Amino acid sequence: MARALHRSVRGRVVSDVVVLRKDVLRGTTPARLRRALVGHRIERVWRRAKLAVIDFDSGARIAVQPRFTGSFVVERSGRGADQYCTLHLVLDDGRRLHYRDVRRLGTFSFFAPGEFEAYASKLGPEPLTPEFTGEVLYDILHGSIRPVKARIMDQYKLAGVGNIYASEALWRSRLDPSRESRSITQRQAEALRDGIVSVLRESIELRGTTIRDYENGAFAERLDAYDRAGEPCRRCGARIVLTHEIDGRATYFCPRCQR
Questions:
Q1: For 229-250, how does the pLDDT look when each residue is reduced to its tens digit (9 = 90+)?
Q2: Which end of the chain has fewer CB atoms within 10 angstroms, the N or the C?
Q3: Whole-structure pTM over 0.90, yes or no?
């Protein structure tokens, strides 16, 4: 999402800001947001944890947390401002950058210069950096009695791993998602690190996991565990199980080969 948006809007100047649903805003008001962004150039769109971050030439930043149904639409016809559009930025080339959110669970946060760095410093390491090793993951898990799935989804411990990819990474590393984190050995932590990195890289390459709300993602066709309850495990043939008991989220796993 961030990469596609960067290619589309980098270098464009905001000429107007229209807020249709102010309940998605965090750290600002519609009037303040307009004053802060109008006349300023978009320098970069990138990702930190589960946030799409938009950098402006003023040093201000927008951090969008799409959650379940948030998405961006860039167009010039005006048709993107449907009933699910929460706000849009009018760009100097006549196009509009819409932020849509069907369930309005996502957030559109404004950070003045210097504020985002303080916020981001509290987040965990990024799994797609060279610094994220099996040893680092072992240290994150060691000493915690929380289920391993919940631990790797804690953004303050490890940034960017969501529910789908946690289930997939644990399937790849043959680990039961309900196991206490402190029970994971160093060798298993290495395998889990490899599972996390591989599933994230493959999903990004295929533009994500489209199930309902975001278009063009093809990783859904490669899922081995998530959304496959009752289907045979592709590794051992046992039936994939769905549970909500681990962390209140839908967790899919193979009861035979994940230990």
A1: 999 999 999 999 999 999 999 9
A2: C
A3: no
